[in-house]
Amino acid sequence: MHSRSRHVLFTGNLLLDKPLQGLYSARADQHDLIRDATLSAFENLVAFAVDQPVEAVVFNGRMFVAPPTVRGAALFRDGVETLLEAGVSVYWAGPQEREWQTLSDIRCLPHGLQRIDENHSRRSVINRSEQWERSVVCEWLDMPRDHDHHTNGAHNNGHVHGQTRIGLTRQAIGHLTQGAALHPERDRRFDLIVSGAADRSHTTRSDKTIYHAPGCLQPSDGLAEGPGQVTMLRIDVNGELELLREETSVVRREQRDLLVEPGGTRNNLLELAELELQELAEQLAEGSTQLLQLEWIVRGPVADIKDWSSEELAAELTSLLETTEQGLPVNHHVQLVPLMSGQPIESDEFVNEQLEEQFLQHLGGQLNGETSDDQADRLTLQLGADGIDWRAVFAALPPRETGHRSGEWGVRALQQYKRA
């Protein structure tokens, strides 16, 4: 490795063996890839750390979905042992005692894995040597209020010459604006504070302190966009820090907005979608992605899209754009958002449009709120015998999904009501 810099790898949440959510359009031949996505992301992390190489890996986030599965625990053990055999020091920041004990009980606790927590609050992850005149120290910040945390005077008074100080926390930093700090007096002693709380990467700065959240290895939330990743910290001989991101996720979600112009057709929409996908595929060419989940938000005038459905559009997109030009499989999910025109209309049509708009607003409010069975029954009665089965809708889809699609379902309901 080049003697003028050193490298430490930081992770956020691993959540090994956690199932991915929101992959509505996954095919049967993709189930194994989706099931193993978090494990594959961890394997990508290990391979990257060995290939670089890095001096240390610091896990700072939730490791497992409690309790650890045997499969996830075994993969974690094997990965850590691979890193240790390659000469990489491995640290686990803030492990829960239950997780640590469970790994030990099932013989999946790697020898050589070191803790950074309230009982081992400071670790020197890189030591000074003849070739390297700086030390890199990681310190656990989330101490109990009654914990007697002893530090010597040099550490408490601020930055130490020849030492890079890194604080580790599970406190969220996503709310911090530029210049803001979690704990100003404490934090100014550190060059970098790494948070394991967020699933998405975030970086900000306060004075001389950098706040950074690496994000998770493989996003599992149906609304999380972009790649899962780890952060490699590069430290030069003068103590200058550089944060470099490496993608680890194998399943990637992206959202794209499409607007149907007045008088627009489905063919116009499909052409726009194809161009969007071509542009996105170029960005993914060098990453670790093996499956792309595309969430399309399609907005258009009610008059033009009232006869469309999200399911039909998703099927057409899948038929036309099943893979990228590079051969990456693509799953499509569509949310159709009808837009009211807002233009004055003469005579009876004005009244009808106003009624439609009021009904859509009412329906959206019902769907976004906590709708009970009684409310669902009333909505079903309002829509007539051929209306939407709201109980089935709420049982099959999460509230965030029903809220997004309330406009489309409202238009369908009105059409059924008028035909009745």
Explain the overall architecture:
This protein is an alpha/beta fold and 420 residues long. It folds into two domains: 5-247, 4-Layer Sandwich (Purple Acid Phosphatase, chain A, domain 2); 252-419, no CATH class. The chain is 35% helix and 23% strand. It has helices at 31-35, 37-51, 70-85, 97-105, 153-156, 184-187, 266-284, 302-305, 310-320, 347-368, 373-383, 390-396, 399-404, 406-419, and strands spanning 5-11, 56-59, 89-93, 114-116, 122-126, 135-140, 163-169, 192-195, 202-206, 209-213, 229-236, 241-247, 251-259, 291-301, 330-339. Strands 4-3-2-1-11-12 form a six-stranded mixed beta sheet. A six-stranded mixed beta sheet has the order 5-6-7-8-10-9, with no helix packed on it. The N and C termini lie far apart (75 Å). Residues 149-157 and 342-351 have low confidence and may be disordered.
